[in-house]
Amino acid sequence: MTSNKGNDRSIEVVILGQRMTLKVDDDPARVERLAAYVSRKADELTSKTPLPPGKAGALLALNIADDYFRALDEARELKQEVARKSRALLSELES
After folding, report:
1. What is the per-residue pLDDT across 55-80, written as a single tens digit (0 to 9) for each?
2. Which helix (H) or strand (E) holds 75?
């Protein structure tokens, strides 16, 4: 999200009650969507049980990593299903 390029833009985000100014060289709207996602996940986590910021941050990272790895697994399964169906259709066309 950050770089040393001259075309950096800054956006302000709040996550776990911490206000941060980020310099972004990516699309600011994309970075704002990412920050909103992280903030929403943080709110979900801390609404159940109040946690110290360090522990909340660690659990937040684990929850987001879980989301990421589940998405990877789903994408892998989808690719395998598409490949399986493609082979079946190809086999059908060849006979």
Report:
1. 999 999 999 999 999 999 999 999 99
2. helix 53-94
Q: Kindly report the number of other CB atoms within 10 A of residue 80's CB atom.
A: 10
Q: Could you tell me the pTM of the whole model?
A: 0.74
Q: What is the 3-class SS of 35-67, one letter each residue?
A: HHHHHHHHHHHHHHCCCCHHHHHHHHHHHHHHH
Q: Are 48 and 59 in contact (CB under 8 A)?
A: no
Token digits for 22?
């980020």
8, 23 contact by CB (below 8 A): yes
Nearest CA to 38 out of 69, 61, 54, 11 is that of 61
Six-digit token string for 57: 């941050």
Contact 60, 42 (CB under 8 A): yes
